[in-house]
Amino acid sequence: MSASLERDVKVHPPAVRLMHWINAAAIIIMIGSGWHIYNNHPIFEWLTFPRWATLGGDPEITYKLNKDVGFSNALLWHFAAMWVFVVNGTAALIYGLVTGRIRRKWFPITPVALWHDFRDALKFKLSHDDLSVYNAVQRLSYVGVILAALLVFLSGLAIWKPVQFQGLTALFYDFQGARLAHFLAMAAIALFILVHVTLAVLVPRTIKSMITGRVRVKSKPIEAMPAAGE
Amino acid sequence: MTIWRTPSVHRPNQDPAGQPLMNEHHTPVRLVERRTVLRGVLGFGAVTLLPGCDISNQQNLQTALRAMSRWNDLVQAWIFDPKVLAPTYSDADVAKPPRYNAFYPKDQVKPVDGETWRLELAGLVGDKQSWDMQTLYALPRETQITRHICVEGWDYIGKWSGVPLKAFLQRIGADTRAK
Fold it and tell me: What are the φ/ψ torsions at residue B144 (nearest 5 degrees)?
């Protein structure tokens, strides 16, 4: 064998990387401005978000100007970034479904594999040798965060136009129900981001691969991937 | 323990009688404490260095946000279906007392003198005569019980009465195509 047993494997096509980072920016703006909007009329008495963690107008300045605590600026952010989030997210879903990438990378998720990988994860024994293959816990969390994104989208629509989409709003019981669903979906996404970013930092190769699309593997050549979408 | 505010009501936890009204307008004061208390919570704004005071006030950014807002206006006009109206409720659903909402406290409300009050008309209207309270009240009035939903996140069901704007505009010969 030649000396080089290392080789670069393509793991993320350009479209996936682009949409990933657009989504990352959009979701950060959405959550930051959403927290500002939330603070204006908190759902839970015991929970408000610190000013530095939010996005929107400066409360002191805007309050002096027009007795508004920067809330309307946060709304502008929220209603601008929602288009980026929805358009990019829709494109990503279509891409993932059409190319079969979602089916191939995230499925199947079997209870046995979940149990096995979950125990390994707790023992920090999960294998990262091949970043192109997701373990069962990863698969479940990716599918879960997509569902949370769909929920945040639907509840967001219900909050945005509660009269025009009153059937949708009724699905969440009422306007406040939709608000609560929107909040909980946000919480699920925020939890995902927390875990996702922590793990990515622990295995920095994953971050590099989401930028360059490639990852260096030190193993026997991996069988050719299916061409579509790779 | 109150985990979640009573759904879909005015603000029951607020004393209607002259309490320091809406707490959101006291936010600037409370922010100071929050900042110290809640330091250490992961902040999405902070992660990207997006705390509003710095970049939100920049002119280009504001222009871009306004442009998106105008786009949203277009989309909202497109979504709006005049046949889909706000659901109506029964008298029993009406929140009592109604939610007080203003950026000044109740004791600073300036009462309106019904005797001297006048509505002055200007612009693209046929009849620019001013209106007093009696003439206005003499017009046919309508009552509806609907849910008022504020963009801030609160809502309550109220009973609203008055002269429909459409009837009034027709009466004064307003150009309803005017923008």
Answer: -140, 150
Residues A159, A178: contact at Cβ < 8 Å? yes
* Of A66, A6, A77, the residue nearest A37 (C-alpha): A77
Query: B125 vs chain A: nearest CA distance in angstroms?
Result: 31
Q: What is the pLDDT of residue B55?
A: 54
Question: So what's the pLDDT on residue B56?
Answer: 53
- Asked if A75's CB is within 8 angstroms of B151's CB, the reply is yes
Containing A106, the helix (H) or strand (E) segment is: helix A101-106
**pLDDT tens-digit profile of A196-205?**
999 899 988 8
Q: Decide if A35 touches B, using CB distance below 8 A.
A: yes
Tokens of A31: 């959550």
pLDDT level of residue B44 (50, 70, 90 thresholds): very low
Coil, helix or strand at residue B146 = strand
Nearest CA among A37, A55, A221 for reference residue A130: A221
- Closest partner residue to A51 among B34, B66, B103, by Cβ? B34
- Report the gap between the CA of B132 and the closest CA in chain A (Å): 30
Contact A83 B68 (CB under 8 A): yes
Say whether B14 sits in a helix, a strand or coil: coil
